[in-house]
Amino acid sequence: MKRIMKKNKIFSMVLALAFGAGAAFTSCVDTDSSLVDFNPQLNSPNDTVFSLLGIMNKMQVVADRTIILGEMRGELSSATEAATTDLKELADFTATVENRYNAPEDYYAVIQNCNYYIAHADTMLALRGEKVFIREYAAVKAFRAWTYLQLAIYYGKVPFFTRPLMTEVEADPSRYPFYDVKQVCEYFIPDLEPYVETDFPLAGNDRYFIPVRALLGDLCLWAGRYREAAQYYHDYLTHPDKPLAPAGNMEAYWGNYEFKSHSSSYSSTTDLAGIRMETSEYDGVVSRLGDVLNSTEDNRYYFEMTSSQSLLELSQAQRYVMVYTDPTTNLRDTISPGENTIYNDSRERGDLRLCSNVRTTYTASRDDYSEDFQTVVRFPVTSNSSFLSEIPLYRLSSIYLRMAEAYNRAGLPESAFAILKYGLSDGTVSKYVSADEQKRAGNLLTWSPYNFITQDMSSTSTTTVNTEGIHSYGCGESYADTLYVIPEGLATHEDSILFVEDKICDEMALEQSFLGQRFGDLQRIALRRDDTDFLARKIAGRAGKDSFNTELYGRLSDRSNWYLPLE
Question: H helices of 73-180, where?
Fold first, then answer.
């Protein structure tokens, strides 16, 4: 019966919610388990706080799916033999409305609750001269914009409404326009701009709210407003109250020039924003992503997603460079692992992030367990629970990479490439960005020395905060790699931009695997270039250069097949 109902609904969702005594809805509306119980007036601080927490609960429902849809439909992940049919359909772009991951109703439940909140919260109510609801109001607006952006990425064109739907007539989707991703972004940019300086709510950890500046950067990036996107990312990273230097993400590196062992590390500053999940099924919505990505007791080690051959080939194609002091001559030089290097794991060849993030050490001893083993370090699970406490939405390195993308398309390829190779600092700008580009960049290449990065990695000084290029997270001291450069002699400035964009795309793959970003990244670049082949060829090459999927390529050559069906 439930499946039949789903076919008859354009969303299979809660377009309208029953508040208070309840309301009657059409068969297009599923009212089951969709309510956030609001005070209709929302005229006290407690009302707004509790209602905000209810919206955050709705965000929990879409958390796992956001990662899975973004990864399984890219080229960096593959479905294993143990994967469910639903996951395999996502990977093959053959998912129907019956697919468990094709549930736009859950995103619209977030939107409906946000719409109701925004329509009813009295943002003018003041306590001792302060607008007591403004922080919650801004947070809800950010949740709504983010949710609509996800819908547009996954579904192409989606019914768009910004008022709460409270009657059967209002719940008719034919009454509303269908917006594509650019239209969604163009609506929410001015909607969010007034709240760019608004602080996060005091309820809960700041990491559970979406930073408005970073989200505005994303919206402008998708809308093709690259200079504005670059400015928002720049201002977010260099904000006087909370500057964010790129150091501190996961970095993998060889211990010494003998290349016998490597190390990796995480920092608490890696994740900037995420969706807080429950850690017990009895408390509410828990994440099942750990069982999909990892070998656990619950899945008897039969994980369902793994890194693709395409990602492996890209990783092994990178060049690792180490700056070292020759013990014989006492001179500084560079060195890379040689052809005769003996690796513990073949994945150690090239970039070290893949082998550091995806562990394969097998520890099971029972016959009914899978003989394969996988732990995705970015989504760790404990021995007594496979439930993840948080699903990341924004990571520090991701912000830097999107900033590089925006700088590049704003006509600043040298600055964008500096983010990859050197890290942005006064020193790297003066050395590696031409005077002409510095002039065109203006304040995008300026920041206070007191709240941002102040030197480049090639300096011998250790008295100030270092920075490094994102490429160094897995490829050693990339500033010293003489082959990792923008080629001289490119015919046009546009050629330089395209070259750097390809490098940014590769770096996004190396740095962001399993984070749910890949399909969106490929789609955004393909749409910008008006190049269907760009996305189709990469995803069809998921199984590696020797196993190109011509059937999948043909399917993705039709842009309508990029998106999940709404009905």
Answer: 85-92, 104-120, 134-155
Which residues are paired to 251 by β-bridges?
265
Of the CA atoms within 13 Å of residue 117, those in its CB half-sphere come to: 32
Digit-coded pLDDT (tens) for 220-241: 999 999 999 999 999 998 887 7
Give the position of tokens 């019956």.
98
Q: What's this model's pTM, rounded to 2 decimal places?
A: 0.90
Specify whether the backbone of 33 is left (phi greater than 0), alpha (psi in -120 to 50) or beta: left
Alpha-helical (H) ranges within 224-326 are 226-237, 289-293, 309-316
Q: Give the range with max mean pLDDT: 196-205, 247-256, 443-452.
A: 196-205
Q: What is the DSSP string of 339-373?
A: TTPPPSSGGGSS-SHHHHHEE-------TTS-S--
Give per-residue burial for 76-112: e unless 16+ CB within 10 Å, then b: bbbbbebbeebbbbbbebebebebebbbbbbbbbbbb
How much is the CA Rg of the chain, to the nearest whole Å? Answer: 24
Catalogue all structural domains in the chain, each as residue range(s) with its CATH number.
2-210 (1.25.40.390), 252-394 (no CATH), 397-526 (no CATH)
Assess whether pLDDT exceeds 60 at residue 309. Answer: yes
Report the 10 Å Cβ neighbour count for 433: 22
Residue 46 CA to residue 52 CA, distance in Å, equals: 10
pLDDT tens profile 331-347: 888 999 988 898 988 89
Supply the pLDDT for residue 29.
Answer: 31
Name the range with the highest mean pLDDT among 87-96, 289-298, 343-352, 415-424.
87-96
